[in-house]
Design a protein that fits this description.
396 residues, five-stranded antiparallel sheet, globular
Length: 396
């Protein structure tokens, strides 16, 4: 046996032992969830280059607390060993997989309250990079916890990287979760999951009908995105729209709180619009029915649409007549108002349950800070003043 083969055999044997140990150590649950208390706002915050966490605060920005905490173990760096093995001619595919990944801290994202405010869901996982890449990757799973930090449950182990925000069912019994290539329906109590949509690109966030019976989602197999209706109980899928080839199409559908309308963004070669669609007697949105659509013209959209709790208004970040910022659409009176002129607003928008204020994130100071403003533009207030990135605020 030549020296190279001896080294390779040694690496495989020792690597196997270390690999088992590595998987055991990295697989342990090291996530700690503290109680939220009386705080009303949840958001994500980047504590350092290698760690993020879920945070909570009161409606005026006071009472800031850290809700989640995870071990920030970096893991052993095997890359120099890999360099040596490659230098003596060991093929890359013989080197154990665990040596090819280097962890770079923990990542937590997307906190969202359950409809009754008693639980919250969030995503948590690890940042890492492969030997052959300088770019970090993130693998996330979905967790649910009670508001006091008890009964923490991991719901999505093994479905691949979680993308986008978790969407609660109206009764709080299930979550819609977008995986790497599929859309999952997950039972919150049991963790049982089923694939609602497989192998299609889901654009933005799906939306539940208020009665929980239907889901509308924008999906694309190519460039253009179409609207689809999914019957939750049967799994039956119905295509609602047909757009021209190479047209951007539909994005970010969202039901009104009473289920009587569906708001959606639409762009073709000539314009971008917010369309507010009526529904038929069966509760199906009437896409393409000119008598059942209200149009609001924009030149650019940059966030999803978010209905006010009373269903009278819609907030979004967009661009209209060259002015970019936070806009509120008055659906009842057919008007559009610029609330905050700011090109750096990003991420999700959240209404206070009584409809009197809107939470948003702005990157005007270089990192993300959280602000609140009235739907008429009054009472603009900065709530966070951290030297780190804050994002994704949601009201309880």
């Amino acid at each position: 046996m030549v020296l190279r083969d001896k080294i390779l055999l040694f690496v495989l044997v020792v690597g196997g032992v270390l690999g088992l140990s590595w998987h055991w150590v990295e697989g342990r649950s090291e996530l700690k969830v503290m109680g939220v208390g009386g705080q009303e706002i949840l958001f994500a915050s980047q504590l350092s280059d290698n760690e993020t966490a879920v945070m909570a605060m009161e409606k005026d920005g006071k009472g800031l607390i850290q809700v989640t905490e995870a071990s920030n173990r970096m893991g052993m760096n095997y890359f120099k060993i890999v360099d040596g093995l490659l230098a003596i001619g060991v093929p890359l595919h013989y080197i154990p997989e665990f040596m090819m990944r280097q962890f770079h801290g923990v990542y937590q994202d997307g906190p969202v309250w359950s409809p009754d405010g008693s639980q919250f869901a969030f995503a948590a996982g690890r940042q890492y990079r492969f030997y052959w890449s300088v770019k970090k990757k993130i693998e996330l799973d979905v967790y649910v916890a009670e508001g006091d930090g008890s009964d923490v449950r991991r719901l999505t182990e093994g479905i691949g990287d979680v993308r986008g925000q978790m969407i609660w069912s109206p009764d709080g019994s299930a979550l819609l979760v977008e995986g790497e290539a599929d859309l999952y329906l997950i039972d919150v109590m049991t963790g049982r999951n089923e694939i609602l949509l497989a192998g299609m690109a889901v654009n933005d966030e799906p939306t539940w009908s208020p009665d929980g019976k239907r889901i509308v989602v924008a999906m694309s197999r190519g460039y253009s995105a179409e609207l689809y209706l999914v019957e939750v109980e049967s799994g039956e899928i119905e295509q609602l729209s047909w757009v021209e080839e190479r047209v951007l199409g539909y994005r970010t559908p969202t039901w009104s709180p009473d289920g009587s309308q569906l708001a959606v963004r639409f762009c073709d070669w000539e314009r971008c619009q917010v369309q507010v669609l009526g529904v038929d007697e069966a509760g199906v949105p009437m896409v393409g029915d000119e008598e059942q659509v209200w149009l609001f013209e924009f030149s650019l959209f940059l966030t999803p649409l978010t209905w006010s709790p009373d269903g009278h208004q819609i907030v979004l970040r967009g661009q209209k007549e060259g002015v970019e910022g936070l806009y509120v659409i008055d659906v009842v009176n057919d008007g559009v108002q610029l609330v905050v002129e700011d090109r750096r607003i990003d991420g999700g928008l959240s209404w206070r349950p009584d409809g009197k204020e809107i939470l948003f994130t702005s990157y005007g100071d270089g990192d993300g800070e959280i602000f609140v403003v009235g739907p008429d533009g009054s009472g603009l207030q900065q709530l966070t003043f951290n030297e780190v990135k804050d994002w994704g605020p949601v009201w309880r």
